[in-house]
Amino acid sequence: MLGGCLAAGVVTGAAALVAPGPRGRSLVPRTAATLIREAPPRDTTVAQIDLRDGRLYRDPRSGFHIEFPDGWELQQAEEEGVVKAVRGDATIAVMVRDATTPEMLAEARADFLRRGIHLSDQEAMEAVRRELDFGSFDRDALTRFVGRRLEGIRAAARGSTVQEQGIRRLGRWPAGYIRATSDGGSAPGEKITNVLYFTLYHGRYYHVAAGALTARYDSLAPLLQKSIRSFAIEEK
Description:
It is built from 4 helices and 13 strands. By secondary structure, the protein is α+β, with helices and mostly antiparallel strands. The protein has one domain (about 5-235): Mog1/PsbP, alpha/beta/alpha sandwich (Protein Transport Mog1p, Chain A, 3-Layer(aba) Sandwich). Helix 1 (about 100-115) packs across helix 2. The longest helix is centred in the middle third of the chain and has 18 residues, at about 140-155. The model is unreliable at about 1-45 (pLDDT under 50).
């Protein structure tokens, strides 16, 4: 439902992160606290802990944790680093990707070149993995990065209207921020409102999206934002 408009750019192909359709496999029962050990080949351990007013989801391999609202259905895609919580038409989703794609490497090389530093492909990859975090960028570089993501969103979304964009925070890290409304409801003419936060840390791209039908978004926004604010990168 929240669709590919939030999965553009470096997150191409991950529209299922927030889109409706076949449901992902359920991760946990909706009752007691559970510790889940995923079978190979993923070989990742995920802790699911019931809290008084929410549930903490931790993915140590992808390096993050987030608290989802209590009672929401937790789903996980087959691909590593992708999880979402769903209730009705509302969705909160997280995706983690390797940032050392050709696009990211080109941006890294260009960023260093502006500072008079020439990098080989290998040097650029190492720089992205170790150093090229949003926290080390200046605001102009962040703004350019957000602008490039917007170009991808506009190209991918049907009837997309960007309402807000800029630099906010995701956990303790500066992050690009976009709020957009697009087509995509189950009924003709229905609109979806989404917010997207994205940042880089040690060679990984962290993407947190949330949204719902536009008619219900304002009433759900405090709950969605509470979950987003709980997101944290587990620093190396």
